[in-house]
Amino acid sequence: MDTFWPGLGANWGRWGDEDERGALNLAGPERVRAAAGGVRTGRAISLARPLRNGLPAYYPRAGDTAFEHQMITWWGSNAGGDVQAASDRLTSECHGLEITHMDALSHIGHRGRGYGGRDFASMTGPDGAARCDITAAVPVVTRAVLADIPRLRGVEHLPAGTAVGHDELAAAAPGLGPGDALIVRTGRWSAPAPDPGPDDDGDRYGHLSGLHPDALRFVADRDAAVVGTDGPGDAFPVAVDDCRLPVHVLALVYLGVHLVHSMALDELADALAAEGRDDFMLVIGPLAVPGGTGSPVTPVAVL
Fold first, then answer.
1. Which residues of the chain are under the pLDDT cut of 50?
2. What is the pTM of this model?
3. Which of the four, 46, 86, 188, 274, has the lowest number of CB atoms within 10 Å?
């Protein structure tokens, strides 16, 4: 089946009509062994942003904050006998612009259809996702390749709103292979805070660097299993007038490629550059939430 983007088809039915794991089917035991075989120093680097109280909420219905850490018990609370206990509660959005998270294939629909051509109205509802929830993605262990676009361009970070396309990814990640994860750095977290942009049309994004829809041709050509970025995935403003989230739509709906957003990639980029390499072992363990359309994650790179 063709998509709305020239030269890019869909993976519907490729792994069977009932498939809910999508391109992660490509990240099987062989890719895990390849990832493990590439570990040299054993250094582990967290690719997650800190979760802090007060992060701005993304969805209006989420309330005042995207994340809340609340203590339930602390010193003075007895667990029983002479034992004290401290415990807490976490409340978090699963999506947004600040939290490092992974999208399930049920997160996005297009023209009434979700991944595999399913009726999107039947995939998700008030009780959660009935198909393609985040548990289908648990766990992710594979070889990954970093496309460090600022380093390719010889700059510290990309200008806000930059869209990275097929050709730059091909130049920055020539070794990407089937079942690998493509991780794209724009330098977002080392850049000055961008101008929020116009808000008279309800724009929640402003100007943010990310991927151009044509980047998904590279993803499809190389059979990448997952795509992660240090931004929202799509570059904003988007390059397609009639589709609000073209990268999300092409990846999640048509290709079945899970997306990871708002990753912390600066330390990883420096470490890989110091070793003269761009590949590493990637481990992601989304929360196993039945019905979840996504999950906060702490991706770990093992060098």
1. 197-202
2. 0.94
3. 274
The confidence score (pLDDT) of residue 78 equals: 67
Residue with tokens 């998509």: 3
User: Residues in the chain, how many?
Assistant: 303
Q: Which residues contact 39 (CB under 8 A, 6 or more apart)?
A: 281, 302, 303
CA dihedral 282, 236, 94, 201 (to 10 degrees): 180
The confidence score (pLDDT) of residue 85 equals 86
Phi, psi of 36 (to 5 degrees): -65, -35
Instruction: Write the single-letter amino acid at 130.
Output: A
Residue 155: how many other CB atoms lie within 10 Å: 12
- Among all chains, which residue has been given the structure tokens 């035991």? 29
What is the helix, strand, coil percentage profile of the chain, to 5?
Answer: 25, 25, 50
CA dihedral of 294, 295, 297, 299, whole degrees rounded to 10: -30
Percent of the residues in the chain that have a pLDDT greater than 90, as a whole number? 83
DSSP 194: P
- Per DSSP, what are the bridge partners of residue 46? 300
Q: Name the residue among 233, 238, 236, 237 with its Cα closest to residue 219.
A: 233
Residue 198: what pLDDT?
Answer: 46
**What's residue 69's pLDDT?**
95
Rounded distance, CA 292 to CA 287, Å?
9
The Cα 49–Cα 189 span in angstroms is: 10
